[in-house]
Amino acid sequence: MLIHVAVAAGGHHSSLESVPELEKAMYITVDGTPCVRLLNLSGEIGCANPGRVKVTAPVRRLENAGEHLDQPSALLLPLHEMETVFNRILNQPGFAQQVAGLFIEYGFGNQTHASGFSPDKSFPQAEFAPYNNKTYLWNPVGGGILQHSYNFPVFMLSQESTAVLQEVAKLNKQQNFKYPVNMAEFDLVMQTTKLGTHTSESCLKEDSCLPLGGYSVWSSLPPINVSSSLPKKPIILAIAAMDSASFFRDKTPGADSPLSGMIALLAAVDALSHIDGASEFTKQLVFLVVTGESWGYLGSRRFLAELTSGADSVSGLSSALIDQVVEIGSVGKAMKEGVPTFFAHTQQESDSTQAIAKALERAAASFGSEVIKVERASTSNPGIPPSSLMSFLNKDPSTPGIVLEEFNTTFKNSFYHSHLDDSPNVNSSSITAAASLVSRTLYILANNGSGSNTTLQSINVNESLVEELVGCLLSCKPGLSCRLVKELITPTQVCANHYVGVMLGAPSSSPDPIYVDDTSRFIWNFLAERTSIPREDSSPCSQDCKNSGELCVGLRVDHKGVCMLSTTRYVPAYSTRLTYESDSWKVLPVQPNDTMGKIDPVWTESFWKTLGVRVYMQQNPFFDEIILLSGLAVTLGSFIAILSSKAVFMKALKNA
């Protein structure tokens, strides 16, 4: 029998006039963020109900990770115990059988802050490394719990729901888990579980999942004249990533890794857009912001595949023209004794790679002594850290490139790929320093290692812009409702989330904006505006512009955009092992020359109907039996009374 949970939580009663009011009185809806089911070609990771129905269990707070459980329970645990409990679940089947679901409490204590928390592996995506040492500890705090499958629901609680669940668990403990007991009801039923499709290939065939993916963005400074007959310039390619990962899909801030690098690149583009004479550069500057990198380097691999096939999304570019690659990784924690210090990571030494390193050193020196430091990464490293440059090196090992990072031998970010990698985890001054270094480095490289010292000194990053980008993209206040974003797009949400998401609709070089997430749309408009050639006769637009090479920038729901001359493009980001045919996705066989395709997991995300959890109080089933028997007795008595009344009535009718 279900009784009002209001009795357990507070005690007051009120009249109920409808079924929804009754349901609201009986249940407490828990506010939380779920861990969901992801699939690849070999199996599953993430969380889901074990079957096709909801899961119910008494709420219990785990006092310590080694505590014994004598019945299936919905466990409430502090974040600092999360990794230990999950490892116990993976290693102790008896304990795992008693875990009906997990609630992770909001916030983190001093233990978590001191030791760090990263659910990813110690070498994330090691299989894609262009070197043999796949066991190097890039991420020393990485526990690897993100990469396993759990057949029970898991929710990260909000601050308010944490307090509610702690009180509920306390009441259960006081009752010694005897009736009446507070129960949790989990609804985390995945479509792949319902249909028994437990790999990406099988779930795509049965339409119970969609591939992970989205849209990367590239832009050039100055714009590229595709129809020009002049020889095309070598390309300096500057790369950053816009997506991250987390145990909880909707809590993926990725502030330091990798959004700090992306913000630094956007600020660098802004600084470079203010200098004159970009058309006189010896080399062409191209900026690429990729998505899907946390899930098999989807963005960079698809970008290279599009280059190979000569797709419309990369019109004006050629892989043969890529001369040097500069990638901006995690740069939000580079302060060392008050001085921002960055490390240049390389895979192999070549004259072209040396030229990038010298450009970085010259750029750092241009700020004066001890303002910004650049050091070469340790030669004891096996090679470059996890980065998009790995895709380029697997495609062509001779690609000259450097990855700029805040760390030397191991990650500085102790919350890598976790929900705790949020805005307090980065320093805007560190990001500004990185943007300053990158902008001047790119200017030097675009001028083939030379360039005017006067112009170089004039390239300055707008620190206020960096702080604004941090507020817009890494927090909820102001979040995507900030002025900078709302002047370019109409956002669909306030809090930016940097989980890659899934591919919606057919992949396209000109996708419908409803299929592109807020971050990608903002980056596209930002880069298009900053890299455009100013025109006095710019015209307003509500769709495509008439003139060749022009784009409609800043188009919003309630505001027209402006036609600008810019080379800015969307590039679909999804696995190179997938193709979209007849309104469905299919897995392709491995191509002989596709080194990364052979190890591509092909990540997908399961469909679901609803995701939620609520709490109610359950009485002793004995009372249910009493009520049932009482109901049957009343029904039987009523039936007998009706028969008796009918007999009396008929007799009276005959005697009348």
Please tell me about this protein's structure.
It is built from 18 helices and 28 strands. By secondary structure, the chain is an alpha/beta fold. The protein folds into three domains: 183 residues, no CATH class; 328 residues, Zn peptidases (Aminopeptidase), CATH 3.40.630; 27 residues. The strands form five sheets. Strands 1, 2, 3, 6, 7, 8, 10, 11 and 28 form a nine-stranded mixed beta sheet that branches. Strands 13, 14, 15, 16, 17, 18, 19, 20 and 24 form a nine-stranded mixed beta sheet that branches. It starts with a strand and ends with a helix. The N terminus is likely disordered.
CATH topological fold name of the largest domain: Aminopeptidase
Secondary structure: number of strands: 28
- Low-pLDDT ranges: 1-13
Structural class: alpha/beta
Corresponding CATH architecture of the largest domain: 3-Layer(aba) Sandwich
| First-to-last CA distance | 50 Å
Radius of gyration: 29 Å
Mean pLDDT: 91
Mass-distribution shape: elongated
List the domain count as a whole number.
Answer: 3
CATH class of the largest domain: Alpha Beta
- Major sheet description: 9 strands, mixed
Q: What is the percentage of strand-forming residues?
A: 15-25%
**CATH homologous superfamily caption of the largest domain:** Zn peptidases
The tally of helices reads: 18
Share of helix among residues?
25-40%
